[in-house]
From TrEMBL:
Pfam families: AP_endonuc_2 (PF01261). GO terms for molecular function: isomerase activity. Keywords: Isomerase. InterPro entries: Xyl_isomerase-like_sf, Xyl_isomerase-like_TIM-brl. Residues 42-202 form the Xylose isomerase-like TIM barrel domain. This is Xylose isomerase-like TIM barrel.
Amino acid sequence: MSNIINCISHIKDFNREKYIQLNLGLEIQDFVNPNLLEMGWDERVDEYKKALEGFPNTLSLHGPFLDLKPVSLDPKIKEASYNRYLQALNIGKKLNVDYIIFHSQINPWIKEPKIVEMTNNLNREFWNKILEEVEDFNGTVLIENVFEFDPLMIKELVDIINLPNVKICFDIGHALLESKVELEDWIKILNDMIEYIHLHWNNGIYDEHNRPTRENILLIKELLNKYNLNPKIALEYGISDVEDEIKRLI
């Protein structure tokens, strides 16, 4: 594996010199916290700007997701969601990130074809509108699977959004937790739409964000090689020694 990124939830966990030495990318997850987005976010952005000046490796940002639904039919919820997404995109622009990850917000239990089509079309309108508003954002938006039990759900969504700078973050832990198909089916179906992977494991019951075993890692490497894919790999689990973990992964 190459293109490795580590996820952190606070700037205190970022060691700039170590990341550069290891050629390790960074995913910033501080801004998923709605309390920070309400108060103190601008100071945190300034801290990151100072720490990241001249940072040469991949930089990504996880956007907010709690209680948000940007295509809600309730205008108040829709407005609040739009503002939070816009806030995250502007933070990403200030930090000059390569990627911003947003949850798909797909409800898999809503299966009626007309409602699915309407929701996907509303998503297309939403993403076209909001990305026009931040037209000088040069990064890629990644839509992440969460509750989907079938990869076709998120594939159809991203196909309908149909923007060159909107790709997929394939969250392996979420797929293991929710899916009715094998991991290979996800990778085969989503294929080169997978720009980025959130790597973590679980017992199939809880979203535990466990460290993958060596066997888990070999399986993922085998599948990516089989389909000739080379996405960014973001480590979304607790790591005590990141240098040792990189050696284990490669």
